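Notes taken during the Thursday session

The instructor put the following on the board and asked us to keep it in front of us for the whole hour. The protein is UDP-N-acetylglucosamine 1-carboxyvinyltransferase. We were told not to look anything up and to reason only from what is written here. First, the residues (419 in total):
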Amino acid sequence: MHKFKIEGGKALIGDVVISGAKNAALPIILATILTDEPVVLHNVPNLRDVKTSFKLLEISGKTVKQLDESSYEITGTVTNSQAPYELVKTMRASILTLGPLAAKTGTADVSLPGGCAIGARPVNLHIHGLEQMGANVEIESGYIKARVNNRLVGTHIYMDMVSVTGTENLVSAATLAYGETRLQNAAREPEVVDLVNFLKTLGADISGEGTNDITVRGVDKLHGGEYTVQPDRIETGTFLVAAAVSGGCITCHKTDPKNMTAVISKLEEAGALVECGDDYIKLDMRNRELKPVNITTAPYPAFPTDMQAQFTLLNAIAKGTGVVTETIFENRFMHVPELNRMGANIELQGNSAICRDCNGLSGAQVMATDLRASASLVIAGFIAKGTTIVDRIYHMDRGYEKIEEKFRALGGCIERIPE
Ligand SMILES: CC(=O)N[C@H]1[C@@H](OP(=O)(O)OP(=O)(O)OC[C@H]2O[C@@H](n3ccc(=O)[nH]c3=O)[C@H](O)[C@@H]2O)O[C@H](CO)[C@@H](O)[C@@H]1O
Ligand SMILES: C=C(OP(=O)(O)O)C(=O)O
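Then, after some discussion, the predicted structure tokens were revealed:
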């Protein structure tokens, strides 16, 4: 298991090019199951989760060919409708095979993902939606087994909770259903919109994306196409927080400020000077005082849970008290005890973290528990006095491309050490 060794105490300054969004790339890659024709994808990030998605496609019978650093061609037809436990256990987003496999082949045997560090994360909405579209779904030996007679049938689905991958699974499945599917209380996340735009390039007939009421009119088949994955708004936000907490100045290029209003306005409230262009965001924190900000996570367009750990760190080192409330996942504060070990003064009260003044952070040996917790600990290492060792960084490799390279270019002292 690799670790990061980080020397702290330097402002992070410079430019960084943002990669394609993990959470857009994964549903798009797995939705290629829906077509027999070639698909070319660009701006695909080189991440562990992306490799896992390609493995899932290859198991299904598809062929994946890398064209350049971030472009891939996916060809072939699905001949096997299994998403095995060995892969699903390493990546929850494997559940995104369920809708496409059921719609395309009438059969899907997808291992139940189970809980993870941040919460129980059930998939009842995915299953219930498919049942409403006519699938017969059984849970057997740890697998979701979906069977469809002939073809899924469009229907009116009200989703009890806003679920990002739940919406993505049902939208993907509905593209090949007979008739019209209406999804109410759908997720509005930019990654859902990216998936819909991709499906439209393959000939899907969808409207309402970006709202909570999406309509999909099923077509007989989808054709091939070429698509560029949107920039990663969470990677962008992570670098902006790194600039803010280190008193530095970072410009994120090839990103999309339009999808980041909640995060940018909180960074401004925290005292940062933020400048946005069409495809860049620059955050300057030099000679400015960091102020605490209260945040509450909620579905888009509200503040994203995937930026919560980074803002918990921001509040931990700001002068004054900031309250972070997590409403999406029941256990997403695993970074708090680790930050406290580095000198933070954060108290957990129910689903809130009360971040009070501390006397700065000092380097320590800490454990990454999930993807965004890892990001907050790595950034904490850059601002702490002395050396920080972050253990279990495989979490980070799931979602951040070339992370050491990117931080090093900003002046960060970080090296990967094999155990
Ligand atoms: C690959 C991907 O895109 N992952 C993102 C996706 O995860 P994911 O799609 O798994 O998260 P959801 O939006 O589904 O989860 C939201 C809430 O709904 C609950 N729920 C969800 C489905 C369901 O069938 N039943 C149920 O109760 C979950 O436990 C959670 O409490 O959205 C999350 C919320 O923005 C992000 O943190 C993840 O980074
Ligand atoms: C929680 C995340 O991812 P996943 O849903 O893949 O676990 C994340 O991207 O922060």
